[in-house]
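Encode chain A's predicted structure.
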Amino acid sequence: MNNERLKEIVNRFNENSVVVLGDVVIDSYVYGKPRGHNPDKDGKPLITVQKESLFLGGGGNSAANVASLGGSCVFYTAVGNDSNSEIVKGICEKNGIVPFFVREGDTIVKRRVLTNDGEYMARVDHGEQDLNDLSEESKKQILENIKEKNPKVILLSDYNKRLFRGNLSESIIAYAKRNNIKVMVDPKPVNSNKFKGSFLFCPNLKEAKEMIGDINDFEEIAKRVREKSGCENVIVTLKDKGLICYDGWECKIIPSYARNVEDTMGAGDTLKAGIALALAAEANIFDAAEIGSHAVAIAVERKETTVVKYQELLDRIEKEL
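Encoded structure for chain A:
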């Protein structure tokens, strides 16, 4: 692989924009000190909270990584008429993301409780009691605003919460094909038939097998996913074995560049952001996958949901020269 070419592509990230559509989640990490006896229930943990860290999760993590990697990003998502929506807005603004909200249901929060030394104690989820399709008015608002932006790449980040429960994805893909815009999909298998005709389909290995059955040959998996999804190109993530890319003609394995894996949460969002920006910078899918693999290697070497910065990615590619 020509890493000088990869560096040239990354150097064009700040000239490009990516539109991200996806379900947003507030990823909350609550850290505290365990106490002895819990007066409410014997044998159950009692934690004195000492700090809380908040990050954009779900599709919001892809948007945050697009911005941190140097690209311009407009993030379309659904939030509630609640105080948590203001938290999402504030994190977006802090990360250089332009948010476009439609108001549907409650804002989703996933709160993880850990001890100060990182021991995982519990998770509490909020806002998922009313996961319905968006209203027709909300879909219209999103599509009309995207048409005004006229992006090079649209990333659809599906977490099977609200945005893609109906026909929004089909409308966006139809518009994009008429206007030579590349649509990249991070799918959930249950919705895979809603993304036919997109430029790039990017499931992980588990999701791919849910779509096509328990096949172990990576090349066969990529080919069958392309056929089943009805998309032009496929990139399947293979955990520690890297990625496999298929453009309808050639299959290619891209290795994992991760050294010491600390936390894989949100790693797929980092990968997709790197690939999307590379496509916007006119990379082919193989070079885009290489860049994404370098980006995700940085992300998994850290704890918590995190973003990867432009200079970090350049430095990582430089080290591989």
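The chain has a mean pLDDT of 92.
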